[in-house]
Amino acid sequence: MLTATIGALVSVLSGTVAAPPLSEAIQRVDPVEYRVQMDVSIRTLGRKTLYMPFVKDGAYHQVDLTRIKELVSSIPFERHQSTWEHEVIDFAPFGSYAMIRRVGHESSDTGFRMTEYVTAYSAQVDEGALALLDWPDTWPLEAADTLRPQLYIESVDQRVVDVMNAWTAGKPKSVSPYYLGKELARQVVRFYQPSGGEVVKGEKGLITSIRVNGALAAIETKRGPMNDVVCLYVAACRAAGLPARPVIGIGAGSRDAEVISWAEYFVPTAGWVSVDFRRLYRSPGSMDDINRRWPGFASDDHLNERIALAYFFYAPVIHRADSKPAEPLLWAWSAVPVGRGGRREPLQTLKIEVDHAPKRGGSEP
Predict the structure, then answer these.
(1) If you average pLDDT over every residue of the chain, what do you get?
(2) What is 127-196+209-306's CATH topology?
(3) Is the pTM of this model over 0.85?
């Protein structure tokens, strides 16, 4: 049986890191530094390569690359101690990945520890300044790469295009990019009702996969996991010509860390605007006036309680966008492990632990 277990230990290290601005209109504030530790155990992996998402420098987080040599090591509970080799590689437009291989002893059990030191920021946004920024003739490469469809983000499907046109009266570019992103968020909240958790859990409460069906499923059912809200929103933005991406990460703002997702869309010359649908759904009445500030949208003093891990629900570096893995959980193998008789056995489990809730940058313990 293929089994993967992650224990992610998230601890606050410091709140004194400088917060460089994204632009004059978007400021990164209140930095919090984390140590993210993931213990991974996989059966039947053998010598296959494992791709772990590794976002080195996101819009609202940065990985300390001076500690990159500490990224992968053996873990204490590994039955047969192995050495590991790892390399951080870039796959445009898919981002960065830690390519991890076993060196030495080979058995059916695989275990290693992956550690990242991450600084997360909150956001202060000048909405008036963002609203004045018009559509560009061309997008920068970072943004242009996010206009393509991807697994679960079926942005070129006619059903997604039709929904987007219905929400914008067929004229998405009649408003500024900032207001388009805001209007599409409002329409998604009105259209779709989230239900259930964002992950599937098995025995002992361990996560076996991320609950995600995609944008098309959200259109068809209008109800389901919060991850599908993010997929639908990102797909609608892309269908309208607005660069957007899902962000999958860890919510560390409470005692029990969670695997969650949110969205970001790009405003030209300014940068990425964060959209937290969890908070938008808690106060839908606040969205009646598009000119007012919405909780969880753009300016977000809770953003430093979220740690970005990936921009894909399943590592796409070796995976076609037109076929879905049975159990998405961020990473991917260079060859899918199989069980006895050639059967795929995609059972995985994920456990996340957090030391304590993060503190605001500069605050006393």
Answers:
(1) 81
(2) C8orf32 fold (3.10.620)
(3) yes
